[in-house]
């Protein structure tokens, strides 16, 4: 299954399919789950990981909201979507920076996903109309 196909099949999309935005939405969905999983793994670590947990949970929530707005194709609200994509990119960047401070494999993987989502959100901002 593909969110790209789902968006393309929306009755109001037609020729207005935005591949870049669909990719950002897809990666925001993945990032939300990766961050939630990383936060859960951080809870199980023996040292204090409270800041990393907070960063991951914040990022997960912002990514979820971003994905939800990005796949919503009835009507349009480009100003809100651009603002949320910009916020998502920044929050992903902050989460990646926090996760990169830790040597845990789950943190390193989370940071990688956050950076990918950050790039996709930034690329998609100018394409939103």
Q: How many DSSP helices?
A: 5
- Outline the low-pLDDT stretches: none
Percentage of β-strand residues = under 5%
| Major sheet size, sense and barrel closure | none
CATH topology: Substrate Binding Domain Of Dnak, Chain:A, Domain 2
Shape: elongated
Helix proportion range: over 70%
Please state the structural category.
Answer: mainly alpha
- Cα-to-Cα separation, first versus last residue: 26 Å
Order of helices and strands: HHHHH
Instruction: Give me the count of strands.
Output: 0
CA-based gyration radius = 15 Å
Which CATH architecture is right?
Up-down Bundle
Mean pLDDT: 92
Q: What is the highest CATH level, the class?
A: Mainly Alpha
**Number of domain units:** 1
What would you say about this model in short?
The chain is an all-alpha fold and 129 residues long.
């Amino acid at each position: 299954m593909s969110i790209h196909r789902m968006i393309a099949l929306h009755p109001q999309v037609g020729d207005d399919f935005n591949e870049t935005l669909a990719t950002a939405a897809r990666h925001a969905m993945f990032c939300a789950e990766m961050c939630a999983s990383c936060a859960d793994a951080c809870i199980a670590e023996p040292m204090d990981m409270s800041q990393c947990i907070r960063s991951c949970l914040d990022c997960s929530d912002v990514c979820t909201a971003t994905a939800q707005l990005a796949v919503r194709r009835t009507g349009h609200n480009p100003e809100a979507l651009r603002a949320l994509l910009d916020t998502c990119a920044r929050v992903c960047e902050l989460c990646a920076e926090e996760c990169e401070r830790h040597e845990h494999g789950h943190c390193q993987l989370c940071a990688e996903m956050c950076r990918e989502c950050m790039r996709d959100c930034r690329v998609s901002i100018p394409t939103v109309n």
